[in-house]
Amino acid sequence: MISRALYPFLSEALDSSPAVALLGPRQVGKTTLALEIGKVRGALYLDLESEQDLAKLAQPELYLEDHQDRLVIFDEVHRLPGLFPVLRGFIDKGRRAGLRTGRFLLLGSASLDLLKQSGETLAGRISYLELSPFNILETGERTSEDLWVAGGFPESLLAKNPRQSLRWRQDFIRTYLERDIPQFGPRIAAEALRRFWVMLAHNQGGVLNAAQFSRNLGVDVKTVTNYLDLLVDLMLVRRLPPWHGNIGKRLVKSPKVYVRDSGLVHALLGIQDKEGLLAHPVVGQSWECFVVENLLGAGIGAPQGFFYRTGGGAEIDLLLTWPDEEIWAVEIKRSLSPRPERGFYSACSDLAPAKKYVVYPGAERYRIAPDIEAIPLPQLAAEIHAKAILNVEF
């Protein structure tokens, strides 16, 4: 079993808060991680997609009353929204009795739905963590290129061969479109959403142009926005916001958008293996977004991620802003002899970041300028993770 970097953060959150919500797309490993930590804590597990477990909660007050001394794990908790007021009552009652932490672990596949339900009812009583697909810190002997091609979903990465990996991802996409997505929002034609998802993959890492998507799909801009909101909510697509500040420059104001898991990008585009990827026009943007997603995942939410671009051509692929107000600038190159563009130097002059890196697919870390380091992805991910440990609070 591959150890998850989130494990100690989840354990600490349960030690600090009466309820913790663990969010992430389906098949990302939420249940496995929850059961692993639940085994240590003697937890009770309830799958709310199971009719048998749902029946146990026909009268949740009575059921939970019999298990006050145990951590209770609720899988797919968004299926039972009426449970949240009950949990609030038990948390408040437990606080009066001295039971202040580690009462409930809530697992959910749709962040907006769960955040809205829990936020309205459990405000001040719940912490949130997101579990992403495997990142470069977790995959051990597998190379960053293996992870890049297959993506980080466990069943895809651990498949016996590339053909089985691709088939799993294709089935995953089909299941989301035909079964899962209709559960989370207004009825959307699966084929229309598939076309939009494929367009996002072709436009991987591009600045959002909703009007162009609208024309290509034959729908209005509002519908495009709804499609995008849904895929972001399901944690399948990321909107990387532009950095904004009063620096006297004309800044790009639209976000970049990309499919978060590189393996899903390749499946949507029909790319079967590394050779096919290297010959595809999306290869550069696929690598860039793979690096961005891994670095943000390594940070466990501690640094906020942005990109920086001005009308004059100054650009930084990824800006990490830390709670201590430190800024890190990251340029991404898929070259063994990486060199920053002129726009990177110009952008760094605008923002004066504390650290400047160029991530590349090599194995050696070295200086390419007095204040700029070329660095392999695993090393920068480890550095970000180490700093995140000092900054994450629950």
Automatic annotation (TrEMBL):
Residue span(s) of domain AAA: 17-138
The protein's name in its UniProt record: ATPase, AAA family
Organismal lineage: Bacteria, Pseudomonadati, Thermodesulfobacteriota, Desulfuromonadia, Geobacterales
InterPro entries, per the entry: AAA_14 (IPR041682), DUF4143 (IPR025420), P-loop_NTPase (IPR027417), WH_DNA-bd_sf (IPR036390)
CDD domains given in the database record: AAA (cd00009)
Cross-referenced Pfam families: AAA_14, DUF4143
Record-annotated DUF4143 domain positions: 178-335
Domain of life: Bacteria
SUPFAM superfamilies membership: P-loop containing nucleoside triphosphate hydrolases, Winged helix' DNA-binding domain
